[in-house]
C-alpha cells in the first residue's frame, strides 16, 4: 500500500519549482484534459516514487522520478521517438545492407538517425514493424519474458478447414524446435485455391507463421503483420510510417512491464 504524499518530502513538495505540474504530465501522457487529470489525482489514483499524491499542483521531475497511475508506470517520451512502420515486401528488416537491398533506413531517411527496429519481418513479408531510439523500451518489447502478442493476416495455398484452424489453437503443431500453438485462428475468406486466415500468437521465432502452415501442407503465399501488442497497423500505407501517440506509447509500455 503506497504511503500518503506529504509536504515532508522536501524535493517533492508541491511548492518546489523543479519539474512540471503533475496534472500537465498526466495530460501529456494521454490521460485526457487537464481537468480530467486533476480528478484522477484527487481520486487517489496517482503515485510518485511509491507515495500516493492527492494534492493538485505537485511538481514532478520525470528525469529522476517515477509516476504511476492505477499501479502502472507512465513514461513521457520527450527525449525518444517510437515509430510504427508498414514494411512492404522485398524490404530488408535492417538499417543497412551490404548487398544494396532496400532497407528500413531507405523508408525513414535521416530524420531519425538513432532509431532501430524492434524485431523483424522476413524479406517477403509485409506489415507492422516498431522502431525506436529508446533502449529500455526495445529491450522489454524484445524480451521473451513479456511475449508480446502479434497478429497476422496470411494467405495460404489450399482450402483450410475450420477443424484444422481450431486444431492449430487447441493442439498446435510440432516443428523442428518444438511444439507451437496459435492463440487465435480465424478463417476470413477462401476459395478452392486459397484461404485468407487471421492468426495471433506470442512466439517471436523466425518465420514462425510460415513454418506453422507449411508444416501442415498449406504454404503461405502472402503474410501481413497487422498488430504488435496494442499497436495496430490501421490505415498506414506500405512504405510509410508514423510516430506513436502518447496513448499508444503508454499502452505499449504497460504491456511490457514498464
TrEMBL record:
Residues 20-79 form the RNA-binding S4 domain. Its EC number is 5.4.99.-. Keywords: Isomerase, RNA-binding. GO terms for biological process: enzyme-directed rRNA pseudouridine synthesis. GO terms for molecular function: RNA binding; rRNA pseudouridine synthase activity. It holds the Pfam family S4. It catalyses: a uridine in RNA = a pseudouridine in RNA. It comes from the Bacteria. NCBIfam families: pseudouridine synthase. Belongs to the pseudouridine synthase RsuA family. This is Pseudouridine synthase. It comes from Bifidobacterium moraviense.
Amino acid at each position: 500500500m503506497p504511503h500518503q504524499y506529504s509536504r515532508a518530502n522536501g524535493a517533492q513538495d508541491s511548492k518546489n519549482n523543479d519539474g512540471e505540474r503533475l496534472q500537465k504530465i498526466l495530460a501529456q501522457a494521454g490521460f485526457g484534459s487537464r481537468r480530467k487529470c486533476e480528478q484522477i489525482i484527487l481520486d487517489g489514483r496517482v503515485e510518485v516514487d511509491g507515495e500516493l499524491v492527492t494534492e493538485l499542483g505537485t511538481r514532478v521531475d520525470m528525469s529522476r522520478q517515477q509516476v504511476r497511475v492505477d499501479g502502472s508506470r507512465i513514461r513521457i517520451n520527450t527525449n525518444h521517438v517510437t515509430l510504427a512502420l508498414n514494411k512492404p515486401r522485398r524490404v530488408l528488416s535492417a538499417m543497412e545492407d551490404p548487398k544494396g537491398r532496400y532497407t528500413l533506413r531507405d523508408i525513414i531517411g535521416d530524420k531519425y538517425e538513432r532509431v532501430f527496429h524492434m524485431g523483424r519481418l522476413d524479406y517477403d513479408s509485409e506489415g507492422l514493424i516498431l522502431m525506436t531510439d529508446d533502449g529500455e523500451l526495445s529491450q522489454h518489447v524484445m524480451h521473451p519474458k513479456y511475449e508480446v502478442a502479434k497478429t497476422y493476416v496470411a494467405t495460404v495455398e489450399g482450402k483450410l478447414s475450420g477443424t484444422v484452424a481450431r486444431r492449430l489453437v487447441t493442439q498446435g503443431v510440432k516443428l523442428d524446435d518444438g511444439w507451437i500453438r496459435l492463440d487465435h485462428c480465424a478463417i476470413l475468406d477462401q476459395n478452392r485455391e486459397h484461404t485468407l486466415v487471421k492468426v495471433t500468437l506470442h512466439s517471436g521465432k523466425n518465420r514462425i507463421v510460415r513454418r506453422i502452415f507449411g508444416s501442415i501442407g498449406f504454404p503461405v503465399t502472402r503474410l501481413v503483420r497487422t498488430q504488435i501488442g496494442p499497436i495496430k497497423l490501421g490505415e498506414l500505407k506500405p512504405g510509410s510510417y508514423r510516430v506513436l501517440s502518447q496513448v499508444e506509447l503508454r499502452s505499449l509500455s504497460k504491456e511490457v512491464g514498464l
